[in-house]
Known about the structure:
Blueprint: H1 2-20, E1 24-28, E2 35-39, E3 43-48, E4 53-58, H2 60-63, E5 66-71, E6 74-79, E7 92-97, E8 100-107, E9 110-113, E10 118-128, E11 131-148, E12 151-167, E13 170-187, E14 190-205, E15 208-212, E16 217-222, E17 227-230
Amino acid sequence: xxxxxxxxxxxxxxxxxxxxxxxxxxxxxxxxxxxxxxxxxxxxxxxxxxxxxxxxxxxxxxxxxxxxxxxxxxxxxxxxxxxxxxxxxxxxxxxxxxxxxxxxxxxxxxxxxxxxxxxxxxxxxxxxxxxxxxxxxxxxxxxxxxxxxxxxxxxxxxxxxxxxxxxxxxxxxxxxxxxxxxxxxxxxxxxxxxxxxxxxxxxxxxxxxxxxxxxxxxxxxxxxxxxxxxx
Length: 231
């Protein structure tokens, strides 16, 4: 009898663990959006097309706590209960949209997209330790703001790249072919860029700018500790 009870307890534990580890996919119907604001540790992947869609995957109890709201053309993704005991598990978000104008990432998650369809101006904000990775950009103006220890990785082409880094953030844009690059850095940040006409860098702190490209116009101001070097 004792052996039977032990077996039942083990089987119940296995079943409970299996249920707890079930990953569920959930489709959400929302109005169209051209901007994204992510609050938390979400893993967001974007594809581009005529149809707008929002798909989430994760444990059921985590998905139930995810709020997705569109306001002023911006899709906001956040957890309703940010102080949940034990925290939240991994939640992956797959988005499909027509074009991308603004990206704001708060927290430690990431936002990734390939073959980015953008408007004339693209604004990227990273506030925390998150990562934004955008490939195959084709845009007139890209504005990047990093506050904290976040990272941004950009590839493609832009007429103008404007960068603000406060803290220890990092920008890798050596594969973003830019005509004009303007950088304002406060702290120990790091930026690698490609400038083909003009590079302007204002650095306060121990920040470092590395650049490639065909520019012969390089203007540097700020701290004596700052480093601006060609690679």
